[in-house]
Amino acid sequence: MREELQKKRQQSGTDTETAADENEDALLERVVVLLRDVDTRWSSTFFMVDRFLELYPAIERFITNDPKLSDTTLFSCVDLQVLNDIREYLFLFHSVQELASAEKTPTLSIVLPLYEHLVEMLRLLKTTLPNLAHIIEVSLRKLHEYIDKARTTRIYSLAMGKKNPLHLIDYSQQTL
């Protein structure tokens, strides 16, 4: 596959390397393919979007150089920006999932503070990506639902007390 791409580039007769050529060369250093969404993998949508954005210059070049694909509609700059915004949104969830899974057995004392941190990050992202404010708001409501439900249980105070004994005292006084 690498040899075929290099031959096509040499046959095009251009000696000047453009940014697209440099990107293509970088992609030739490792074999990458588009990914599919996997229901059982938490971050698969993030990885899929991320890989698509990485490969898009090569995809665009492939489509424009193949006459059989001349009726294929390419992404506009706006489409790519929207997809990049979605990638940034998904990256927050991916990061939290990575932090939680860094522990062999994630516990409530790790996960709940991560949820609360995620809420803060989503609030900030809402101002940065106003076009995604509606989906960010839905995520915030769901996270608040989980956090509020967790806070009503005794196990929450035990879990948080394990991490921070002062929090256990504060929480137990609030529930009296």
Structure description:
Residues 1-21 are annotated as: Disordered. InterPro entries: RNaseH-like_sf. This protein is mostly helical. The protein has two domains: 1-74, no CATH class; 95-176, no CATH class. 73% of the residues lie in helices and 0% in strands. The chain is built from eight helices and no strands. The chain has helices at 2-11, 19-28, 44-65, 77-102, 108-128, 133-151, 154-163, 165-174. Helix 5 (108-128) packs antiparallel against helix 6 (133-151). The longest helix is centred in the middle third of the chain and has 26 residues, at 77-102. Residues 13-17 and 165-173 have low confidence and may be disordered.
- Which segments are poorly predicted (pLDDT under 50) over 5 or more consecutive residues? 13-17, 165-173
Helix fraction? Answer: over 70%
Look at the helices and sheets and give the structural class.
Answer: mainly alpha
Biggest β-sheet strands, sense, barrel: none
The topology string of helices and strands comes to HHHHHHHH
Rg, please? 23 Å
Total of domains: 2
Overall shape: it is elongated
Put simply, the count of helices is 8
Number of strands: 0
Approximate strand percentage: under 5%
Mean pLDDT over the full residue set: 77
Our measurement of the CA-to-CA distance between the termini, rounded to an integer number of angstroms, reads: 69 Å
Region (Disordered): 1-21
